[in-house]
């Protein structure tokens, strides 16, 4: 079949067995091997009615299961070893773009291109049935059968495992203290009396400190600056009604988010999640900026965080000087 119809497109992916390759033939059929060193080509089931190449497709290999995810028009199909299943179809539309990508196997968080709006649909592919992963997209909770394949349409957002605080605030009809505080702040900006009602409900339950902490924590896991600001404004609003609320956590979160937003800029291109940033530590992040020769940004971060000269500016200037000398 490959000789007769040729290869329209191929994708390389990694598996537990080694390096795999998947191909799309001119007959619009998929074939793949999970290990090019032990070549055993397997043809995937046919997609009903597929008369032209899919808009985009990707391969996901995890736990010794390899599947192909492809978009045809507004429909999303999943191919496993034995069947072709419709994962998302009308009326739950998924915006389709030019490419699809998969996260590294077993990764906890990372940057993925995805559409501007991911529907709150439970995607349960047969090969991964029973495994649901809570995700966040633009401040809204959704559930997906696998965190790997994400569709793209020219706009990059970051998807990560939804932490408890984020789930509590953004799940539908949530009555969590953080969710109520966020609504109270929004109503306050509208000069609505509902703000007092929401706030009173939280205070009557003596959950205002928890509500503020939830909003601060959830802000760290958001990637859209507008959503970050909304959560932090809610936290700041709630703090006004608490005696002696410790400000350190709020201030630190503002600092962390400012650093994260700076390195996530497309001109810098280090789209770390909050969890990755904390595990990486600021020292390692500065080392990465130095390796990329982003000395001005590294120095500004050091000055903003008020790091010691030995740990921060002086060390970076020393690297810069060595780099300039080597270029002479």
Automatic annotation (TrEMBL):
Q: Which residues form a coiled coil?
A: 181-208
**Entry keywords, A to Z:** Coiled coil
User: Could you give a GO molecular-function term held by this entry?
Assistant: actin binding
Q: Does the keyword Coiled coil apply?
A: yes
Name the domain of life.
Eukaryota
Q: Which residues form the Vps16 N-terminal domain?
A: 1-92, 161-252
One Gene Ontology term from the biological process aspect of the record: endosomal transport
Gene Ontology CC entries for this record: endosome; HOPS complex; lysosomal membrane
| PANTHER family registered for this protein in UniProt | VACUOLAR PROTEIN SORTING VPS16, VACUOLAR PROTEIN SORTING-ASSOCIATED PROTEIN 16 HOMOLOG
This protein's name: Vps16 N-terminal domain-containing protein
Please report the organism this UniProt entry assigns to the protein. Eudyptula minor (Little blue penguin)
């Amino acid at each position: 079949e490959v000789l007769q119809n040729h290869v329209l497109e191929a994708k390389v992916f990694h598996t537990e067995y080694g390096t795999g390759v998947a191909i799309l033939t001119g007959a619009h059929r998929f074939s793949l091997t999970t290990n090019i060193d032990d070549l055993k080509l397997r043809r995937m089931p046919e997609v009903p009615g597929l008369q032209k190449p899919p808009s985009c497709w990707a391969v996901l290999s995890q736990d010794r299961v390899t599947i192909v995810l492809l978009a045809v028009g507004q429909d999303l199909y999943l191919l496993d070893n034995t069947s072709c299943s419709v994962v998302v179809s009308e009326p739950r539309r998924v915006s389709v773009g030019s490419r699809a990508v998969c996260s590294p196997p077993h990764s906890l968080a990372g940057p993925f291109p995805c559409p501007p709006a991911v529907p709150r649909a439970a995607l349960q592919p047969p090969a991964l049935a029973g495994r649901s992963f809570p995700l966040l997209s633009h401040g809204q909770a959704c559930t997906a059968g696998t965190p790997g394949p994400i569709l793209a349409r020219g706009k990059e957002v970051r998807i990560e495992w939804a932490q408890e605080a984020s789930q509590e605030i953004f799940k539908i009809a949530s009555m969590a203290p953080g969710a109520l505080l966020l609504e109270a702040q929004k109503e306050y900006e509208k000069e609505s009396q509902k703000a007092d009602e929401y706030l009173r409900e939280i205070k009557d339950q003596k959950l205002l400190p928890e509500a503020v902490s939830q909003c601060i924590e959830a802000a760290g896991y958001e990637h859209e600056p507008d959503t970050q600001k909304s959560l932090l404004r809610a936290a700041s609003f709630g703090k006004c009604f608490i005696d002696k609320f410790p400000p350190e956590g709020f201030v630190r979160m503002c600092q962390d988010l400012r650093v994260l937003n700076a390195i996530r800029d497309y001109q810098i291109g280090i789209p770390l999640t909050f969890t990755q940033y904390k595990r990486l530590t600021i020292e390692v992040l500065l080392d990465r900026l130095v390796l990329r020769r982003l000395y001005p940004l590294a120095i500004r971060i050091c000055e903003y965080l008020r790091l010691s000269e030995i740990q921060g500016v002086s060390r970076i200037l020393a690297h810069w000087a060595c780099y300039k000398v080597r270029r002479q």
